[in-house]
Give the backbone structure.
Amino acid sequence: MTMQHSVSTDLGESIAVSALPSKALQLAFSLFLGAVILYGIGFIETSTVHNAAHDMRHSQGFPCH
Amino acid sequence: MLFRRIVLYALLVGASAGLLLTVVQLWQVIPIIHSAERFEGEKVPAGVHGHVGHQHAEHEHSAGAWEPAAGAERTGFTVMSNVLMAVGFALVLLPVMLVSSKTGGESKVNWSKGLFWGAAGYAVFYLAPSLGLPPEVPGAVAAPLEARQLWWLFAVTCTAAGLAGVAFGKTPWRWAALGLLVLPHIVGAPRPLTAAFSGHPAAVTAELARLAEQFIGATAVANGVLWLTLGLASIWAVRRIGSVST
């Protein structure tokens, strides 16, 4: 379903009448990707990640230690 | 493809906001972190305060774990973390702004909207969590990490939902969403069992308390710059990405 929509958008946005669900999905996936990045940089407790992101976490008020 | 455009602009917006944030951090935030870390070796032996042992009382890094070397390497990782974090925020902000601008048409996409979104991000991701869990200097005693992370998420979610309800709700009932803004603070953030700097000599405790106070002001400014940049740069990105309506 999604594949079909992306093919039609490549040909031109105006003819992609049924592309709305696909765009909603793309918006939702952008948001999800952002949440995953924020979880990784702000919340993962593994020492290496924690130590690398340490000063940023303190600065931005992410709970640290 | 919409997703590709959003990611491209999130990278540009995040890189500019993250780099600007680093400049502001180097002015006040980072020097305060370094000052607080100098006191970490001066604690009273742990046996005296055995009852706080489970509380992550110290700014411990696991023995032998990798950490960036002081100086350029540490700053480099902070720059990278800042940019990644800002890209993450941009990826969350851009889809929400695109959907919101879709309903209002082109006239709604202007610079004052950028200020509005920046202020909303600041309230959701900095002000609300900081009211319960003020940004801490290294060495401060805090409640268990998992409990604080959960409360942080709870505060962010409630504040975002509350502001969205008031801003976008269509019925008079939308004012009920204001209740969501106070809910996390009624529930209350997890608190440590002891004072923030217990275990240090009195003179060090006083100095750390002073640094902790300065730190709140410094992070408030740094986060303000971050969200101002994110809001304004995201408006520019939304105009470039264009309409998402079909």
About this structure: The mean pLDDT of chain A is 80.
